Amino acid sequence: MPFHREDIQIIPSPGLHPQADILVYFPKSEVLCTGDLLLSQNCPAVQDVPGYMDFLDKILDIFPPGVTFAGGHGKDPTMDGLYAAFQKAMAGKPRSVRSDGFTPEQRFFISYAQQWRRIMRPEYLRLLVQTDTHAPAHYRVNGPLSSVATDTTRLFPAVFAPPR
Known about the structure:
Layout: E1 2-3, E2 6-7, E3 9-12, E4 22-26, E5 31-35, H1 49-62, E6 68-71, H2 79-90, H3 104-115, H4 122-131, H5 139-146, H6 149-155, H7 157-160
């Protein structure tokens, strides 16, 4: 399959993490993108550890020496770390309300939450919980945002106001 002036190879994974992961090999560049099957900071969550070890042996045998392995997203940043990086990037810059009515800080949290926005039927959610190693989307928002609760409460007072 051609991609950016290079023929690439799409290789299905044996359904280890998650079941839909694939490998993408760029032969000319000698780069193998492994998605979440090979992480830079830790071991992925896999159900079948012996199967995962066999898989790693196979990819080491299949691809030429010197191939560069490009792993998945690496270590997941914490919400505190992301927000601290945002605050550092915004240091000394104006933080005025824009035409949408939100401050830069509010837009930071809104954009984080929107990336995980999903509407799922209960049957599909049950299937994901049984087959996907990742947490359902709403837990990927509610958990991390709770670590910066004081900021979210301050930035969204109408949402977090106590009931009357």
